[in-house]
C-alpha cells in the first residue's frame, strides 16, 4: 500500500500576498482522492518526532532558539517565513512525516510526504522557506537506527540542495546529488557529492538525457540501500521562480525515471514534494499528482 504523510497543519495560513503556495497541501490530497488515485487509508497523520532526531542533524542552540521563537530578525528574514509557534509545529510535523514515510518505504518499497523537501535548512540555520531539513533528518534517522547503511539523496528541485550538501559534506554514508538551475537561488552554491547545474530554459529532451546519463551510473557506483527523492516541480516552464523549461509531461517522465530506477534495483524510496510556484495552482497540483499516480502505477 502507498503510504502518504499528511497533516492539516501542512496548510497553515500565511500572511496575504505571501508567495509560498500553502493551499497546494490541501488541494493535492483532495485531487488524489477525487480521481481515485488513493483512498483515505493511504494517508497517515505524523506523530510528533522526538527532539533527539532533530538534534541528530541540527545544533542544539539553533533548535532551542527556534522553539523559543528567539531567532534574530536577520535569521527570520532568511527563512522567508514569519516566525511563530504554529509554523514551527508545522515544520516538526513535516520532519516526522518524512521519517515515518521512510519507515513505510522499507515495508512497501515506496512512501511519500505531501510536504517536505526542506533542503535549504543548514545544521545551524534556516533559509529559503526551510526551518529544518527533513531529508537530512530522515537520512540520519535511517543510518543511526541501523535501517540503512548508505543513503542516496536525489534532489531534482530547481534550487540546489545547499543545506543538505553542507550537512553531509564529511559523511561518506550519504551521497548528495543535486541537479538544479545554475543561475537560480541560492546565489552561493554548496558542494554536493555530485552537482549538475543546468542552463536557463532547458527543455524536456535535454534535461531527461542528462538525468539518465547521471542517475544510473551513480546508483551502480554508490550502491545505496535507501533513496530519498526531493521531487520539486519548480522545474516547470510555468514556474515563477524556476527559469527552466520542462513541460508537465517532462516533469512526470523525470519522476518515472527515478522511481523506475529505484524499483528495478529494489531500493526503498521516500519522496517529498519540494517546491512549486507556477502562476496557476492547478499546474502545481497536477505536476505533484503525477508523482503519486506513477507511484501507484510502478509499485502497486
Describe the structure.
This protein is α/β, with parallel strands linked by helices and 300 residues long. It has a single domain (3-299), classed as Arginase, Chain A, CATH 3.40.800.20. The chain has 10 helices and 8 strands. The chain has helices spanning 24-34, 51-54, 60-67, 73-79, 85-108, 134-144, 162-167, 204-222, 248-265, 281-299; strands at residues 3-5, 43-44, 110-113, 151-155, 174-181, 194-198, 226-230, 269-272. It has an 8-stranded parallel β-sheet, sandwiched between helices. Helix 9 links the parallel strand 7 (226-230) and strand 8. Helix 5 crosses helix 6 and helix 9 packs parallel to helix 10. It is globular. The relative contact order is 0.15.
Record keyword descriptors for this entry:
300 residues, alpha/beta, Arginase, Chain A, 8-stranded parallel sheet, 10 helices
Summarize the structure.
One of its GO terms (biological process) is epigenetic regulation of gene expression. By secondary structure, this protein is an alpha/beta fold. The chain has one domain: Arginase, Chain A, CATH 3.40.800.20.
